[in-house]
């Protein structure tokens, strides 16, 4: 199978690259840097060797600026434009090829739904309000270019992806190991999370299940509150979690980017479950036990 992957240097992408290489797929890895084993592209300058895309069975686009960090005007513009420009350029270039891919998967996020309290959010739930919802809504609209030409298109609405080797858990682990972890804000907000193994398994599931298209929630079936998440993480590390971080302090540090930590998103993986996907890590405890007590190779 020929797979084109954009955004393969991030946490999810690194694991996907290892997975596809071990499986023996023909992998075309698009990268902004000219590293060995990658193929250079620059969406902003519209630079790519279009022949790389010809004959691709699957195209996966994970490219985009990290949403973590302090949001100022420059950061928010990078978040927006890195997603829009890469997706638009990739889709437009694919349309120039003699043959179109069978399947195109674009990253998205549960931020699509906005801050929704205790509401259970399935793929049928409406978009929310606010900056991230607007970004996700526009981001998901761009691949319509391919859908109109008969390409099967899906959007992976990722929750918080957990695993060893980087990502959010690596940032959380150090303060908790030092006994300085705590709830964020009220702690009542729901967190939608997923183990990296289920990201990989879910993507394989989407590739194989040709009846699936459109939005797909990439979250574990057991979304929990931030307070519950904090308690399980502290217990796994055998540490206390005595230092709650109030909302005002998060806002001082991250500006409006504090919504990443404070929005309540109780997403449910309805389409994965109904199509027969079995989660390797449906519950948080066993996933954290693996990642925090066993060092394993990526993939």
Walk me through the topology.
Elements: E1 2-6, H1 11-23, E2 26-31, E3 39-40, E4 58-61, H2 73-94, E5 103-109, E6 120-121, H3 131-141, H4 144-147, E7 152-158, E8 160-162, H5 167-177, E9 190-191, E10 193-195, H6 196-208, E11 214-218, E12 224-225, H7 226-236, H8 247-254, H9 259-262, E13 266-267, H10 270-274, H11 284-293
Parallel strand pairs: 1-2, 1-4, 2-3, 4-5, 5-7, 6-13, 7-11, 8-10
Antiparallel strand pairs: 9-12
Helix pairs in contact: 7-11
Could you state the order of secondary-structure elements as H and E?
EHEEEHEEHHEEHEEHEEHHHEHH
**N/C terminus separation:** 19 Å
The overall pLDDT, averaged over residues, is 94
Question: What do we call the CATH homologous superfamily?
Answer: NAD(P)-binding Rossmann-like Domain
How is the biggest beta sheet arranged? 7 strands, parallel
Molecular structure report:
The chain has eleven helices and 13 strands. It has helices at residues 11-23, 73-94, 131-141, 144-147, 167-177, 196-208, 226-236, 247-254, 259-262, 270-274, 284-293; strands at 2-6, 26-31, 39-40, 58-61, 103-109, 120-121, 152-158, 160-162, 190-191, 193-195, 214-218, 224-225, 266-267.
Q: TL;DR?
A:
By secondary structure, this protein is of the alpha/beta class. The chain is 37% helix and 17% strand.
């Amino acid at each position: 199978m020929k797979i084109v992957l954009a955004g393969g240097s991030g946490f999810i992408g690194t694991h996907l690259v290892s997975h596809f290489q071990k499986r023996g797929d023909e992998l075309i890895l698009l990268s902004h840097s000219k590293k060995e084993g990658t193929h250079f592209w620059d969406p902003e300058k519209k630079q790519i060797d279009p022949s790389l895309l010809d004959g691709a069975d699957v195209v996966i686009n994970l490219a985009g600026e990290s949403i973590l960090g302090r949001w100022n005007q420059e950061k928010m513009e990078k978040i927006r434009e890195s997603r829009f420009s890469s997706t638009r350029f990739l889709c437009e270039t694919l349309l120039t090829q003699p043959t179109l891919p069978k399947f195109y998967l674009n990253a998205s996020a549960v931020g699509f739904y906005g801050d929704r309290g205790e509401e259970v959010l399935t793929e049928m739930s409406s978009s929310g309000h606010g900056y991230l919802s607007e970004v996700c809504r526009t981001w998901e609209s761009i691949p319509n270019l391919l859908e109109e030409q008969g390409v099967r298109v899906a959007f992976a609405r990722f929750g918080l992806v957990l695993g060893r080797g980087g990502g959010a858990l690596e940032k959380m682990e150090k303060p908790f190991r030092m006994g300085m972890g705590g709830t964020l804000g009220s702690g009542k907000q729901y967190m939608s999370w997923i183990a990296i193994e289920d990201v990989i398994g879910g993507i394989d599931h989407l590739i194989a299940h040709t009846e699936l298209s459109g939005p797909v929630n990439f979250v574990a079936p057991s979304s929990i509150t931030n307070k519950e998440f904090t308690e399980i993480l502290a217990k796994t590390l055998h540490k206390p979690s005595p230092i709650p971080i109030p909302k005002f302090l998060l806002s001082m540090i991250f500006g409006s980017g504090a919504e990443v930590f404070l929005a309540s998103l109780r997403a449910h993986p309805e389409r994965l479950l109904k199509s027969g996907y079995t989660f390797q890590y449906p519950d948080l405890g066993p996933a954290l036990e693996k990642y925090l007590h066993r060092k394993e190779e990526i993939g």
